[in-house]
Inverse folding.
């Protein structure tokens, strides 16, 4: 089971339901209807519901500096588009689609207006994570999580941190579309068809992108760690 | 191994995204193919590793609880701003809609008023016009060869016809801005350019109009900022008979005009059949003593009466409402004469009057030339 399905918000969001089993409207449908009726508190509920999921997604897609702005942009777009939401797709697919579009637009703007790039860090510091716009070197520190000094924790924890940093680096080396695809599937649990909807592409493209992304990540991990060390 | 599963398909297989039958086939293959089994296992490890990032994200969420509130506050403020903008936009649109509706009503009223004034002037101010209660002459199709007047629907067309064949034109320009006809001019074969401009509050560079009917001609001049009292002269030598379509233009048809103010029919003076030119109600910011506009001056013979009108084209161009109206007039008092047609070109000068004044001035300057007090072209 994917992590976000396990966590607290799963009580509020069912995956596809227009109606729950007993015939009552599903929670997300109710939430959407309340939003469409102009209930501001319902919209704030929606923000609080999706913010914990969107923030890691946007952080990994656009970097920690831009994630908050993109999150705001995502919810503003959602607020504008909510009156037209007909429930053709599930609410989470719809929201993630908006977030992906917002990120894509931001990436296009960034490409059209190149910024001064931050010079790359030496290899030793890179893993510490100071992502500047892209995901290279985005570690937990840059995501705002402070961990204890590794000298005081068991070896397994150190290993896990190393693995996470490597994974984040590998993800950062992927293109935006491959990164989004692998995150949407492996981290957020979307099905291929849902990802195709979010990414505006055919299911076959999702399939090949996902394989390519995994193969690339595998290459990075295998280069850095013996196979037995990254088996969970 | 021959017949191995493609890695892309293996990747989809571990995700459970293959159709059932294919999934069983892949499963059977993987059970007996170590290479594909290894490939599938490594892809599965990658998937699990990426999925494990969610645990760190859970810690991240805890660390960012305060941040969530900050984001919510930002979104709340932005939504409020946007709602305010929407409300303002809605009010603006409603207000604009009201104004637009009023504007249309105003324009319609002005157009109706203009048309009414024009009809009244033509019908009652001209001597020899049929009485209001009398039977109206039956409208006949416009026939330039028989009437001697042809229709010009645009300024360019007027110029072209005049230059090419000398056919007569009759043109009325009204300014809907004031609701009053600004000028009406007519010309027959051989007359000089009819130049016109009617711009409320703007200079009218020069005007000259001439009419000839059955060998009689008259002209009127107006120039300057505003319009001077039209000088008029009538002459007739029969040299440019409009009933003769083959005859070339003969400007001499007007050369006998004296250019003095007031009508002076030459040849066969006849009050009842002499043509008439009316220049009326030109708006001007020039003092009356120099402008001489605002009044209606008529040469002493009737042009005729309007027997029918029809709007032939109308449309919007930026800032202007343009409407072409055709109307038929009977010339003189001869009821047997076929009606000639003229064109009303109505310009609704809502804005940028200079855009109209400039071309009018240029036409007047280049085509008509100086014509103060002269009936000759």
């Amino acid at each position: 089971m994917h992590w976000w399905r396990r966590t607290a918000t799963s009580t509020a969001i069912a995956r596809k339901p227009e109606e729950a089993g007993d015939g009552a409207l599903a929670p997300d449908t109710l939430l959407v209807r309340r939003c469409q009726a102009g209930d501001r508190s319902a919209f704030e509920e929606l923000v609080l519901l999706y913010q914990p999921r969107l923030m890691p997604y946007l952080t990994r897609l656009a970097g920690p500096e831009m994630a908050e702005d993109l999150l705001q942009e995502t919810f503003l777009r959602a607020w504008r588009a909510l009156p037209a939401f007909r429930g053709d797709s599930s609410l989470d697919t719809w929201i993630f689609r908006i977030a992906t579009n917002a990120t894509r637009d931001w990436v296009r703007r960034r490409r059209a207006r190149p910024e001064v790039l931050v010079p790359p860090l030496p290899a030793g510091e890179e893993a510490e994570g100071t992502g500047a716009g892209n995901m290279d070197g985005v570690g937990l520190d840059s995501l705002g999580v402070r961990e204890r000094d590794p000298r005081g924790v068991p070896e397994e924890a150190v290993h896990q941190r190393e693995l996470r940093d490597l994974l984040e680096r590998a993800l950062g080396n992927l293109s935006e579309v491959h990164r989004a695809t692998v995150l949407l599937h492996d981290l957020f649990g979307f099905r291929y068809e849902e990802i195709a909807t979010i990414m505006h592409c055919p299911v076959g493209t999702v399939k090949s992108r996902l394989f390519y992304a995994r193969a690339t990540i595998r290459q990075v991990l295998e280069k850095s760690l013996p196979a037995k060390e990254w088996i969970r | 191994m021959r017949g191995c599963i493609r890695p892309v398909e293996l990747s989809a297989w571990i995700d459970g995204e293959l159709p059932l039958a294919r999934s069983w086939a892949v499963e059977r293959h993987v059970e007996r193919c170590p290479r594909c089994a290894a490939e599938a296992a490594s892809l599965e490890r990658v998937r699990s590793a990426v999925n494990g990032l969610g645990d760190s994200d859970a810690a991240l969420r805890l660390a960012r609880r305060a941040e969530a509130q900050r984001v919510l506050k930002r979104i709340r403020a932005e939504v409020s701003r946007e709602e305010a903008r929407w409300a303002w936009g809605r009010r603006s649109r409603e207000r604009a809609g009201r104004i637009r509706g009023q504007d249309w009503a105003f324009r319609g009223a002005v157009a109706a008023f203009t048309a009414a004034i024009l009809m009244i002037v033509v019908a009652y101010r001209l001597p020899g016009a049929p009485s209001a209660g009398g039977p109206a002459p039956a409208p006949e199709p416009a026939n330039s060869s028989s009437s001697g007047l042809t229709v010009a629907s645009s300024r360019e067309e007027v110029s072209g016809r005049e230059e090419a064949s000398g056919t007569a034109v009759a043109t009325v320009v009204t300014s809907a801005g004031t609701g009053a006809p600004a000028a009406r001019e007519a010309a027959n074969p051989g007359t000089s350019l009819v130049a016109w401009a009617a711009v409320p509050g703007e200079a009218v560079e020069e005007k000259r109009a001439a009419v000839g009917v059955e060998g009689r001609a008259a002209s009127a001049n107006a120039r300057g900022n505003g319009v001077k009292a039209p000088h008029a002269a009538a002459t007739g030598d029969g040299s440019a008979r409009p009933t003769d379509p083959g005859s070339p233009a003969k400007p001499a048809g007007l050369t006998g005009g004296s250019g003095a103010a007031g009508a002076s029919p030459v040849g066969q003076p006849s009050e009842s059949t002499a043509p008439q030119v009316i220049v009326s109600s030109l708006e001007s910011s020039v003092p009356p003593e120099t402008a001489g506009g605002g009044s209606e001056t008529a040469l002493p013979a009737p042009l005729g009466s309007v027997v029918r009108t029809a709007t032939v084209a109308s449309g919007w161009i930026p800032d202007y409402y343009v409407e072409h109206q055709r109307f038929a007039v009977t010339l003189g008092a001869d009821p047997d004469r076929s009606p000639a047609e003229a064109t009303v070109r109505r310009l609704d000068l809502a804005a940028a009057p200079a855009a109209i004044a400039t071309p009018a001035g240029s036409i007047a300057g280049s085509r008509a030339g100086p014509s103060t007090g002269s009936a000759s072209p």
